[in-house]
Amino acid sequence: MFFSSPRNSIPAHANLFKILECKVLITVNPTLPMAPAIIEATGVRAIEYPGVDDLLDNIYPLYPFTKTFAKARKEPLVVLHTSGTTGFPKPIVWNHDWVASWSDWLAIAPPEGYTNQTALWTSYAGGIFMTLLNAVFNQTPLIYPLAGVPLSTQIVLEALNHIKADSVLLAPPFVEEIGKNPEMLDFLVKNIDVLLYGGGDVSQATGDKISKRLKLSMIIGSTESGAYPAIFPSDKWPSNDWKYFHFHPHAGIELRPHSENRYEAILMRNSDLRNCNRYFPSFHLWMNGKHTIYTPLILLFPIMVIFRTK
Fold first, then answer.
1. Radius of gyration of the chain, Cα coordinates, nearest whole angstrom
2. Is 57 helix (H, G, I), strand (E, B) or coil?
3. pLDDT(293) > 50
4. 172-180 vs 182-191: helix axis angle to the nearest 10?
5. Residue 299 and residue 50: Cα distance in Å, rounded?
6. Do the record's keywords include Phosphoprotein (predicted)?
7. How many CA atoms are closer than 13 Å to the CA of 44, on its beta-carbon side?
8. 170: burial class by Cβ within 10 Å (0-12, 13-18, 19+)?
9. Are strands 114-116 and 231-233 parallel, antiparallel or unpaired?
């Protein structure tokens, strides 16, 4: 299954569909505005996904999946893409092996006196982490917003009036709105345990205000590597350090000097941590800097030892 961002231009959609040889576009009702243009540009066949009522009211035949992990491990599970900031987006394929190794990476036992912060997450790639991988590996029930309705902070709060949730994952603009609205913050303090955010920064003032009353945690990662393993002290939630990310000491991640007062996160090659180099098995280091690395690099440069993304 390929998930293309609705923010892509029609030429970008068409280029990705061509590279991946897509034949079918799954749409929903109401249809997203760009769907007809994508169909016209690519010639793909459109299939409308059943609505929630249809899925709940009808009985569908089972679809057996009989392959063992050994047989399926190299087969694609989902396909995402890079941001496209330097041209057309490039596809990134997650196979079953990558997903399994990523889950192992997050499951590294924490040091004594610490807890795995990543395990708390109902966590582009971030949507897959939350809606598919976290649901499967952590057996986490997920609450989805209504389809076809523009997402807003108020809709999230209204949903919490009808169902209990342990945590909420929001984009930074929604977090900023909560920090400026005392009533919204009061409501969340009474109804959830953790507020998560990812995909951007939250201002210091907003984060300080929220973290004094509610556990606030950010998600860091990339489409290529997955979410990074993090830890926090078991005896106390680090409320004052909400803007800091404590990498798991055994995750193979180092911070090295980059420029004045700046450090670069580097994923080290480690024989005990397959996931650190799942995409780049020939690299000794993966420099995670300004630009992203995508899968074809390992095919174009199979003997590279170091790849710097600056």
1. 21
2. helix
3. no
4. 110
5. 39
6. yes
7. 24
8. buried
9. antiparallel
Q: Which two tokens stand for residue 153?
A: 């902070």
Distance CA 54, CA 56 (A): 5
Match domain 107-242 to its CATH number in 2.60.98, 2.30.30, 3.90.1570, 3.40.50.
3.40.50
Residue 266 host element (H or E): strand 262-268
Distance CA 179, CA 207 (A): 7
Which residues fall within 8 angstroms of residue 256, CB to CB, at 6 or more apart? 263, 264, 266
Q: Residue 62 corresponds to which tokens in the numbers above?
A: 């089972």
Residues 6+ apart with CB under 8 A from 110: 116, 231, 248
Task: Give long-range contacts, CB 8 A cutoff, 24+ apart: 148-156.
Answer: 148/28, 148/29, 148/30, 153/177, 153/178, 153/181, 153/184
Q: Considering the entire predicted model, what is its pTM?
A: 0.74
pLDDT per residue over 72-103, tens digit each? 988 998 898 887 777 899 998 888 887 777 77
How many residues are recorded in the chain? Answer: 310
Instruction: State residue 27 phi and psi, 5-degree precision.
Output: -110, 170
- Residue spans of the domains in the chain: they are 10-64, 107-242
Q: Measured at the alpha carbon of residue 308, what is the angle toward residues 306 and 310, in degrees to the nearest 5?
A: 170
Distance CA(216)–CA(193), nearest Å, equals 9
Predicted confidence (pLDDT) per residue in 154-169, tens digit: 999 999 999 889 989 8
Cis peptide before 281 (omega within 30 of 0): no
Supply angle C-alpha 229, 170, 83, rounded to 5: 70
Q: Residue 271 is which amino acid?
A: S
